[in-house]
Amino acid sequence: MGVEDLVGVEPACSAPGPVVGRADSDPILRTEKVGKSFGGLVALEDASIRAHLGEVTGIMGPNGAGKTTLFNVITGNLGATTGRVFVKGHDASRFSPYRIARLGVARTFQSPRVFPSLRVVDNVILGRYPLAGEKALSALFGRVRVAKRERAAREEALEALGSVGLLDCADELACNLGYAQRKIIEIARGVMQDAELFLLDEPFSGIHGEVVSRMEGTICGLRERGAAVCLIEHNVGALTRLADYVYVLNEGRLIAEGTSREIRTNPVVIEAYLGKERARVLTAGDH
Fold it and tell me: 10 Å Cβ neighbour count for 109?
């Protein structure tokens, strides 16, 4: 869906997020003028965003805009060249990925990363820190305690799967599930992790039809639980239906921000997606 198709798009989630008081509330995630360069190539420059609990924050932009690079910096997979990243008030700019995960940050990827030969429930259990039975001595000399922890972990994983609508698939091998379901396994793993911030990288890519509605429902469910969701998406219709607030990147720079309604009618955003001539035609038609 292109920007020109967005007139009249209705929100997907039932209750509006707390956008009105956004500037005055403490964000769970804040980036300050984050930049990332690869040699002479500037992939990201001065990117400042905020994400709040109980909101869906959208990040959109054309291919190569720097969206995934921003996620990689936030999660510690890449170090920022300039700027800082704050998670729950902690300066996490130099944190390793596992330290950021332990702050309550869950990440999904454009292509789902699951273990295909494991059952769905076992894939989800991997989201728990620490993993049941992870220490050899505990497993050897504390079998009863380890078994109890494993049962508890399974119960929690089943609960997480139930929250995203995959409970019936718990004992299936992950390789037997469809592409969209495997994406939802990653989200369930974040629920198992007790994540408060979910970074979802193109959850709608490769899925169509009624499966889109299911994914929208899953994301709305995270928001209703009080989590913060930060969403990268090329399906602009889905993003603007879900997002309470949107940031737009182009060529590594932040070019616009605002509510979904404001972004849909922003001529700078329309130009970035469609080019100057098409943007001129569309905006002329609004007058």
Answer: 15
User: What DSSP line would sit under 90-121, residue for residue?
Assistant: EE-TT--HHHHHTTTEEE--SS----TTSBHH
Q: Which of 251, 183, 254 is nearest to 219 (CA)?
A: 183
Would you call 15 helix, strand, or coil by DSSP? coil
Report the SS3 class of residue 167. helix
Residue 44's identity, in one-letter code, is: L
Phi, psi (5° rounding) for residue 120?
A: -60, -45
CATH of domain 22-104+196-260: 3.40.50.300
Rg of the chain's alpha carbons, rounded to an integer? Answer: 20
Between 179-192 and 143-163, two packed helices, what is the crossing angle to 10 degrees? Answer: 120
Longest dimension (CA), the chain: 76
The DSSP secondary-structure symbol of 24 reads G
Residue 97: phi and psi, rounded to 5, are -55, -40
Cα dihedral across residues 94, 98, 100, 106: positive or negative: positive
Q: What are the tens digits of pLDDT across the range 159-215?
A: 999 999 999 999 999 999 999 999 999 999 999 999 999 999 999 998 888 889 889
Task: Quick: pLDDT tens for 93-121.
Answer: 999 999 999 999 999 998 999 999 999 99
